[in-house]
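Explain this fold:

***
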Amino acid sequence: MRRASRIEPITPLLKRDTRPRSARAAPMFLVLVLLLVASAPARAGFVTVAQYAGPPSGFAVAGGFVYAARSNVPSVLVYSATKGTLLREIGLAVVSAIETAPTGVTALAADEDGTVFVGTAPAGEVFAISQLKPFSLGRADDLPGGAHPDSITALFPSSDGRLYFGPQADIDTTTILFRSAKTSLSSAEPIALLDDSLPVRVTTLAGTTGLVFVGTGDSPAGISGGRAHLLHTASKKIVRVFLGDSFVTSAVARPDSLFFATSPRGRVYDLSGNLRFTVAETAVHAMLYANDGNESVTFLGSETGLLRRWHNDGSVDTVGMVDPNAASIVGLGFVREPERIFGVAVSAVNGGGIVFYYDAVAPWVTNVDISIDPSLKQPSTPEPFPPRITWGQYTFTITTNEPLNGLPTVNLRYPDNSLQQIPMAGADTTFSGTITIDKSRPAGTVTLVFVGVDDAGNTGTTIVKESTFTLESFGQVRIANNLIRPAYGEFATIRYVLNSPQNVAIRVFNMRGLLVADLSPGFRGPGQHQDVTWDGRNMRGEKVASGVYLVRIEAGTEIQATFRVMVIQ
């Protein structure tokens, strides 16, 4: 799972192949095919997930969860990336391993395996959260001059197995970057940066294989001392330095190793120190790089609450205001399923946090299940899939890739373009409805049509699972389940349609022509019938021997038919 400070190429506006597939020929049957019925995603919208008290101080996305933190509370809030609901608040003070317990969170960063690292104040203790359980990594005590960190200003868990971090402390400014194992800070080692003799601090960390980008910013006293350093992790040497501005955030593109860094003056630089563009806002506090294979996009979180988007051709457009009360956007992260850009902004009303997401992708159906007519279900065998579709009652259950805002509209479209709506019930991502298919429906290909709207206002009409189901012709007699095991309670159902009132006779014979059972229902009116079953017993109620039996059906001049049924005892 991706995280806000280290972003791989992603696809926030992914275009899916939604071309219809060919239906299989079935001249004697009515075939129901769940086809891909697609439309372009509607214009994306913003959804405010939650608001919380306290200044936002960290944000990360990992493992299907969204993590948010505050500078005055020693805990991490965890939200569901699918439903956006608050799942839990993870307290840190109870698992602290040093004398000075944390009072607030100063930095968050997520690893590729879903582990979230948490920097805290006032003693610089670092925690890890794995599978929603926190544990302390301790703190770096052996800083130059015997100093102790009072907070962690930036974190970066690298793919080389190390954790890079920048503490805030009154120490030699040439060694304000450290790295340690991801399991403990006891082995932390300093890394020398540019000796600028200014009390700067690490403000942003990002990286890719073998490289770490280190951005420094002005000191709390306001002394200008920002630099950007490119660290070679194997040699532990700075291989490039560019000057001239402070840096507040960064983003990395994979596999191009294309870095972007922003300054408090609204400028965005590339890895070589070249000024790429300047935004209208005074500062960009959050960035997210994305690549859909055709177009490189960098999302910019401004201090005005506007989410902007910069393209490689140099153009910048505005996505929109993330929330009416949002001020500065201070964190962004990408969730792949369902595709969303999550973020956190500072509230202009009370200075608290506003958790939001930007959704540009329409919902779609990921799975369709059909339950067969209850009268055909056998007690001892699992329901077949795909089932044999014939006239009768069926339950359609669909699963969507994300929660919907209200119930979806689901119809069956028949060859004559008539629609039969399936009344749906359910919530979130699972919905079901039951309909009766009668003999009036024409033969041919039938399409399941879905329309659903997500919380961001995107309308989806796509079904990604295709299945073919056989609907038997209504003008014929059929034996449902012509292989039965009476010892397990199985039975055969005789289904037939009459065009006029008839006296119906249904009898079972063995292969020698001897009558075994008389199932005749007698006089029946026009319409469809399925009121005759045979459970493999003779007229005395005894179970018949294993073998093949003949079922003879007679209804005046309309029906004269014989079918075989296999009995296995």
Observations:
- The CA atoms of residues 19 and 275 lie 42 Å apart.
